[in-house]
Design goal:
The protein has helices spanning 16-20, 46-50; strands at 2-6, 27-29, 32-34, 56-60. By secondary structure, the protein is an alpha+beta fold. A hairpin with a 2-residue loop joins strand 2 and strand 3. 25% of the residues are buried.
């Protein structure tokens, strides 16, 4: 199981995490990414690799 989180203060709203996540964990709200379906995360780390601001973190539980 993985815990994915977005630091809203760092998020630049580029939508890269939302556009590249293979299991659509992210939604965009008020110009920021939100991990609405964090429980669906498979740990592929695509979101962390495409996030240029370092706003997305992924932790194995």
């Amino acid at each position: 199981m993985y815990l994915v989180a977005v630091d809203a203060a760092k998020c630049e709203g580029c939508e890269e995490c939302a556009n590249n996540c293979p299991v659509t964990v992210f939604d965009m709200k008020d110009g920021k990414a939100v991990a609405e379906r964090a429980g669906d995360c498979e740990g592929c780390q695509t979101c962390t690799s495409v996030c240029s601001s370092g706003a997305v973190t992924l932790t194995e539980m």
